[in-house]
Amino acid sequence: MNPVIEVSVVVDAAAMQAIGGGLARFNAAAAGYGDQRALAVVVRDPVSGQPAGGATGRSSFGLLFLDLLFLPNVLRGRGIGAEVLRRFEDEGRRRGCRAAVLYTISFQAPDFYARHGWRRFGEIACDPPGTSRIFMTKSLREE
């Protein structure tokens, strides 16, 4: 019997386990070890304790992946983003990561990352017209 293949906007826990867990097991078998771990640096409202922003990503096979970094306007320009990024990178170093990678959109924060030692290694045009995805990396080895 042939499998059913579907396209969905919802990724449920069972699908994530089948896909993410399956890939993690494959990678661990191929590499001889598995070390992928999630990472979050969360900025919380001091009164409510609710998350206001922060960064999420993961570490895997010596690389740190910064997937998302967001702060609401009220928290920008106060050094909080730099501190979130520093803590994210420091945790990557503690995990033994040699480098970090991310992508940002040209209207987001490429200059912010560049100010903190990240360098561009690729760029791909995307929508809306005139914008691009900018791929960046940073060595996490102590200089």
The rough form would be described as globular
Give the fraction of residues assigned to helices: 25-40%
Structural class determined from secondary elements:
alpha+beta
Strand order of the largest sheet: 1-2-3-4-6-5
Q: What is the chains' assembly state?
A: single chain
Major sheet description: 6 strands, mixed
SSE run: HEEEHEHEE
Mean pLDDT: 96
* Straight-line N-to-C gap: 57 Å
Query: How many helical stretches?
Result: 3
What portion of residues belong to β-strands?
Answer: 25-35%
* Unreliable runs: none
Q: Work out the number of β strands.
A: 6
Radius of gyration using CA atoms only = 18 Å
Describe the structure.
The protein is of the alpha+beta class. It has 3 helices and 6 strands; from the N terminus they run αβββαβαββ. The chain starts with 12 loop residues before the first helix and ends with a strand. The mean pLDDT is 96.
Compact overview of the structure:
This protein has 143 residues and is an alpha+beta fold. It has helices at residues 13-31, 80-94, 110-115; strands at residues 37-44, 51-60, 63-70, 99-105, 119-126, 131-139.
Topology record:
Layout: H1 13-31, E1 37-44, E2 51-60, E3 63-70, H2 80-94, E4 99-105, H3 110-115, E5 119-126, E6 131-139
Parallel strand pairs: 3-4
Antiparallel strand pairs: 1-2, 2-3, 4-6, 5-6
Key traits:
six-stranded mixed β-sheet, 3 helices, 143 residues, globular, 28% helix, alpha+beta
